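Appendix B. One record, verbatim.
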Amino acid sequence: MNYKKYITAKNSDQRLSEISTNNINKRSKNRLFIDESKTYQSIIGFGGAFTEAACYTLNKLSTKNKVKVLKAYFDQENGLGYNLGRVAINSCDFSLDNYTYVKKDDDKLTSFDITREEKWVLPTIKHAKDIRGEAIKILASPWSPPAWMKTNNDMNNGGKLLKKYYQSWANYYVNFINEYKKREIDIWGVTVQNEPAAVQTWDSCIYNGKEERDFVKNYLGPTLHKNNLGDIKIIIWDHNRDEIINRTTEILSDKKAAQYIWGTGIHWYVSEEFQNVGEVHKKFPDKNLLFTEGTQEGGVHLGSWKTGERYARNMIGDLNNWVRGYIDWNIVLNEFGGPNHVGNYCDAPLIADTNNDKIIFNSSYYYIGHFSKFIQEDAVRINSEINNGKLKVSTFKNPNNEIVTIILNESEEKLYFELIYNNQSIYNKAPKRSIQTLLIKEGGI
């Protein structure tokens, strides 16, 4: 048969494992229909964040294991084929402490200096780029302006950007982009503000919809264009799905603001209201959607299967609602789920035991891989439907005409199904607590 099957299943040794494609004799009323005549969004890619914490942790490992981690993500043949990345402008919670690139009260930015990033972050990105063999699209996000630019005079605990510093802050993006470029790393896009509706105990800054709209319309957009950076993608919101409709409507309904905006970024915290993401596409079909952050909270969850399933469920839910790419949070963290300068420890697909120089692969690594390893850049989502709600599916057509179908079974039941495509069909099964990727070569099954 002209297809391949890869599977990851709980209570087995199968981890992105290629298995036999022998047709299963068990018949089923469950039917998975694939229709490539119905097409949706093209895919930009998949990736993770180069936080200071991640890059610092990586450098606590031996050279051999450092390379192993980066190959596990960015190698196009033997890794997950990541082609996207995210960095913080100034510090975030997953930095070793609060920091900025300028001295106090320097609104002209004459002291602007990103030397700190040269210690861990920039070398890690360059190493990943070398392993991939191609450029990585880097998204840059601020968590907070310098404290002296804010109403609360604090990088943490929310506060707002003082209006008298709007232009200086827009110039800050330009300096950041140019300094990265000097170091041979291109910034692909920027978000206006990480989680602009959340007052956090770590680096945070609040914008309401009008403030975010006006900052883009009157400062950030024009400033990037004036400095020959009009090709940099501007992404709004960069927060959860629950309020995405209200926020995007308030901003994108303004044509002067919308002209500068590439699309909307989303996180997965608070809710899994995937339909809200699809509604944004319906209202603004000319704009894009990108998943910009998600992580399992509450420290490290070694051995957990639910973390991997959470990734896959969210990826299918978002991709089936017009999201064009997926950027995970930290690519690696230490054995505690840090470092984090306010103790907001989280999980990561790869955990580094820095005391024993070991790498632990979590279920999330493999579940993400069922998407990123097989869905190529510029693939197009095509229609797929299944008549059993216990199975979740998403299907894509790669540039080489290969069909990629991901099937997620979170239930405790082994489920059989008939896959129907191009007037051909096969019977297959989805083991309990499993994910599988079917690669159907051009010409059918």
